[in-house]
Amino acid sequence: MNDFIEKMMFDPKWYHYIIIILLSPLSLVYGLFMYVRRVFTEKKAFDIPIVSIGNLVVGGSGKTPFVIALAQRYENVTIISRGYGRKSKGLIWVSEKGKILTSVKESGDEAMLMARSLPHVSVVVSEDRVKAIEEAKARGAECIILDDGFNRVDIEKFEILLEPARIKNYFPFPAGAFREFWFMSVDADLVVKEGLDFEREVTLEDLSAKMLLVTAISNPHRLDKYLPDAVVGKIYLEDHAYFDEAVLKQQMQAYGAETLLVTEKDRVKMADFKLPLSKMKLKLEIKDEIFAAIDKYVHMYNSKEV
């Protein structure tokens, strides 16, 4: 069922459109609600540069590697994330200037990946982004990066919207993968499109002759074009799901696999596993003019010219 829904949202075939049409009235109601919310919500300013990295399509747009690439450019940066998939609530400091302060189950996989990838950056997870911004400021942050922040319409910020290379289904949830109407991209300060403004660069490490792909990401079929011929099987879990080491060991034996092939997002949830891993590493090649536009905002804000 999950595979059917993901294909309907991201790569629909003719038979998916029966469901899409049936769900379209709900999509219209949902889209109108989100539109009214965006138009009439008052924004709060925080007297600190806040750069939001978001998307209109759920999952898989490259937000996490974009945040990592951007955070490396500034001093005294704090990343604030919702912490999707975490087994905790409230405000938690995942790292402070590179020092890891909690576990991946407390932080969520994406927040832990950012924390481990950025040795001089602080990472916070919180449902209440306003509270997190205020606490980060109190601890000396000079720039905030808001992970997945486009739908936080109550915060004044510089909006960067990541857009996939191709879109086949333009319906809002539940008939499609859009969080709002597709044309709400006009609210962004900067729309960054894959294939035009940035490219994905995937490298493979520690490969073996027989690998079992195991992943818990949204729209996992997007990995297919990067997979080597030595992949003997594929196991897909729900986005942000956690792994059971004993089950994975059994699956390796069943497929005759020598290693598990995992993404970096999956790997942070296997840090204590004693299983051989092959890795897929993703980074983004982002055009200089995109960074220049963001730098201009941050530097102008810090010069009190915004």
Short description:
The protein has helices at 2-10, 16-40, 63-71, 104-107, 109-117, 129-138, 245-255, 264-267, 288-302, and strands spanning 50-55, 77-81, 92-96, 99-100, 122-125, 143-147, 158-163, 190-193, 198-205, 211-215, 231-236, 259-263, 277-286. By secondary structure, it is of the alpha/beta class. The strands form 2 sheets. The chain has an 8-stranded mixed beta sheet with strand order 4-3-5-2-6-1-7-8, with helices on both faces. Strands 9-13-12-10-11 form a 5-stranded mixed beta sheet.
Characterize the structure shown.
The protein is an alpha/beta fold and 306 residues long. The protein has nine helices and 13 strands. It has an eight-stranded mixed sheet with strand order 4-3-5-2-6-1-7-8, sandwiched between helices. A five-stranded mixed sheet has the order 9-13-12-10-11. The radius of gyration is 20 Å and the shape is globular.
Question: What are the main properties of this structure?
Answer:
306 residues; alpha/beta; Rossmann fold; 2 domains; eight-stranded mixed sheet; five-stranded mixed sheet; 9 helices
